[in-house]
Design goal:
It is a single chain. By secondary structure, this protein is of the alpha+beta class. Helix content is about 35%, strand content about 15%. It contains 7 helices and 9 strands. α4 runs antiparallel to α5. The chain is elongated, with a radius of gyration of 47 Å. It starts with a helix and ends with a strand. The N terminus is likely disordered.
């Protein structure tokens, strides 16, 4: 009778306490009747297992809901550099490691202050030498005029085909054409530019003073300048500064003097230049520019009708 009662699943399993209360008398009776205790426990575990599984499932659901409702406070990352991690996985179950994408803060090197110059100081010549120190000397300045054949080349009127015009309406002669005139007048090697000081670099421009020397005599002194937009372009700006000083020195020789004559500028614009309304192909802004009549509007502009 006791064994049949132990094997019937008719007991109520409301809680674990009711489990113990319901089976404690039967367990005692089983011991007195000689029924093995492990047979009783094993049969009761088989009957109670579905209830235990159901209770465990409810507990996991309750725990998951409580964890999701907890407030989350994000932590701010430290400003130090974070290296990519190779221990994380890509989540597809194949176990292949995939480094996480991180932002590496690189330290930008400081740009050196070049306002004091480029350390290109002038050479100091010995006093006993026969060489002229063109960084300080004015040797031969206005001592005598150049020969007539040289003066004719220097004072030759400009050809309209050589003159260019900028979009803002400023007319100019390319620097290479100044050099061609000097080479034709004095011969290659018969003239040169001597620096009169160190190169000065400001926040946006490069400037240096040069002297134009021709046939062993000083002709003119002028200071050149050139703008730049990044420290990497300073070497190119120094070359532009030298060319600008050469063009200014050529004014004293009468080379391309028409470019500073308002009457010539007006006549050149009327005969050889035109204004055009153009549209920027990127930002779609419309403006008016100057260009030669034999030129076309170039990128990034296109002429608007």
């Amino acid at each position: 009778m006791a064994l049949r009662a132990l094997q019937q699943p008719s007991c109520c399993f409301g809680t674990s306490n009711s489990y113990r209360v319901a089976f404690s008398p039967l367990l005692t009776l089983a011991k007195t009747q000689g029924v093995a205790t492990h047979r009783f426990v094993s049969s009761r575990r088989l009957l109670a297992q579905p209830y235990l599984d159901q209770q465990a499932h409810k507990y996991r659901q309750t725990r998951s809901i409580s964890d999701s409702t907890k407030s989350y406070r994000p932590q701010t990352a430290a400003p130090s550099t974070v290296k990519p991690s190779t221990s994380s996985y890509n989540g597809n179950g194949n176990g292949n490691a995939k480094p996480q994408s991180t932002v590496v803060h690189k330290h930008k090197p400081d740009v050196p202050d070049l306002s004091g110059g480029l350390s290109d100081g002038l050479l100091v010549l010995d006093e006993g030498t026969n060489h002229v120190d063109w960084s300080r000397s004015f040797h031969g300045l206005s001592s005598e005029p150049f020969p007539k054949e040289v003066a004719d080349i220097l004072l030759q009127p400009l050809a309209p085909d050589d003159v260019e015009i900028k979009p803002d309406g400023i007319v100019y002669l390319p620097e290479i054409k100044y050099r061609r005139i000097l080479n034709k007048a004095f011969g290659p090697g018969g003239w040169g530019l001597a620096p009169r000081g160190e190169t000065i670099v400001t926040a946006k421009a490069v400037t240096r003073e040069y002297a134009l020397v021709a046939h062993g005599r000083l002709v003119s002194v002028a200071r050149g300048e050139q703008d730049y937009f990044s420290p990497d372009s300073i070497p190119t700006a120094t070359e532009g500064c030298k060319s600008n000083a050469m063009m200014r020195c050529c004014k004293d020789l009468g080379v391309a003097s028409e470019l500073w004559d308002p009457k010539f500028i007006r006549q050149f614009k009327a005969k050889h230049a035109r204004e055009a309304f153009v549209e920027h192909m990127v930002n779609k802004r419309k403006t008016k520019i100057w260009l030669r009549k034999d030129d076309e509007v170039k990128y990034p502009f296109k002429e608007s009708r």
